[in-house]
Amino acid sequence: MFCFQCQETAKNTGCTVRGVCGKPEETADLQDLLIYACKGISVYGEMLKEKGTVDNAAGRFICEALFTTITNATWDDDVIIGRIRQALKIRDAVKEKLGTEISYALPDCAVWTADDKESIVTKALSDELRITATENEDVRSLQQMLVIGCKGIAAYADHAAILGFEKDEIYGFLMEALASTTKDLSVDDMIVMVMKAGECAVNTMALLDEANTTVYGHPEITEVNIGVGKNPGILISGHDLKDMEELLKQTEGTGVDVYTHGEMLPANYYPAFKNYDHFVGNYGGSWWHQNKDFESFNGAILLTTNCLIPIKKNNTYLDRLFTTNVVSYPGAKHVADRPAGGAKDFSGVVELAKKCAPPEEVESGKIVGGFAHHQVLALADQVIEAVKSGAIKRFVVMAGCDGRQKARSYFTEVAENLPNDTVILTAGCAKYRYNKLALGDIGGIPRVLDAGQCNDSYSLAVIALKLKEAFGLNDINELPVSYDIAWYEQKAVAVLLALLFLGVKGIRLGPTLPGFLSPNVANVLVEKFDIKPIGTVEEDIAAMMAGN
Fold first, then answer.
1. How far apart are CA 31 and CA 54, in angstroms?
2. How confident is the model over 47-95, as pLDDT tens digits?
3. Is it true that domain 222-336+344-354 has CATH number 3.40.1030.10?
4. Is domain 10-199 given the CATH code 1.20.1270.20 in the classification?
5. Which H or E run contains 161?
6. What does the pLDDT look like over 435-482, one tens digit per residue?
7. Residue boundaries of the structural domains of the chain
8. Which of 4, 9, 1 is nearest to 403 (CA)?
9. DSSP state of 312
10. How many CB atoms sit inside 10 A of residue 388's CB?
């Protein structure tokens, strides 16, 4: 095992025995093999693309497969093995579709095969699959930054596809990117490919934004209840809004309430979900609080995407836990994919919920969100006037992920100590570090503007670009905007690459710089984009207010 894809990775160099996330070595090895199999599909997929055809089914599978390997998504080895078997069949189908005799030697990922579990496990244990098999540290760093960024792109593309929005260009790029890691490219060519991943991330997030807002409307300023009702409940976590829609429809009139958790909080902001009286609000905090939150909730729990963490010995909610989509966990009940043209069957979740006690109240009150780009631009005149008058001196983008490390208290302290003439722009679960603080407003504009899920970081980019236009500036970096980003997993890396592609410079990144960055690659990012690690709260606030 060698894994350094998340911010928690051991000693910020890599987990080698067991993941800090809890991922066993065997699971990590099988995930590596699944990625390896996707590279095999991509070798042929790229050839097919060069002939003018993108294999849509193959691209769709690659998105699901890469999503499966994201931190805290799939804990069931048999599920991963099943996807590996499927990958080999898809690879061979793409090869057949290519219909061309290949005269040169192909990489092993394009030709190896296995037909039983033992052979698959044996392959997963082979040294050639380890990330460390690439001896050159800089090559390894660039290849893995690309693969990790592709995981984030794949996750967002998967969300969009579920709502019926797809682009062959995204699938084509993912295959081009994965295939590139099997080639002997120059460092310069690899850097170009990483920047192309940033461009693809922008396009993918734009597609997902189009999907979400077309189907569910534009997020609106919303007060979200964080208390509880008296009925039994279902707690839905993750990111999948289609699951949210179908669950709300199937719980209507059942006497069961629905609550969001973690990254599902922004579902409260969409107009389409506001007509359900049994949609109570949000319960608990970000993903890493779930052992406590799920326990005290008492009712049924539905995990729609990654962020599921291992259950502790003293937890009692396994028999109340349901997974769906790419999420799996041994012992948890899995809700099957929706049939073509139909909806998922959440009846098992609903029936169990009816037998449960109501949630235990852990807090009360309301929080405000819904400041995606459409809503903020509706307030553009008010915002621009506040900036021109000096009422707002600076915007600080504090998007990204939350996590367990004590060092993340830095983001709470920054929020608490920023001057009263600053506004925080946020998206992702990083918001839980400060979205319940009483930070007030500036002329009616809340000092924390929550755009939504991590994929809604796209909204923050749109807002910045529109402000640049409104103020007649030539460069996005001339805006009174600073970036103080928290990262944890692979979707945040895709967002980072998107920001770099858009030309954003001076991003502070923490609590640590990614472990997958070699010193030389880190230096390139520092020199070209002025990426910097977070420092002390006092020093960073002073620097940001000075425009540095």
1. 25
2. 999 999 999 999 999 999 999 999 999 999 999 999 999 999 999 999 9
3. no
4. yes
5. helix 137-162
6. 999 999 999 999 999 999 998 999 999 999 999 999 999 999 999 999
7. 10-199, 222-336+344-354, 375-545
8. 9
9. P
10. 10
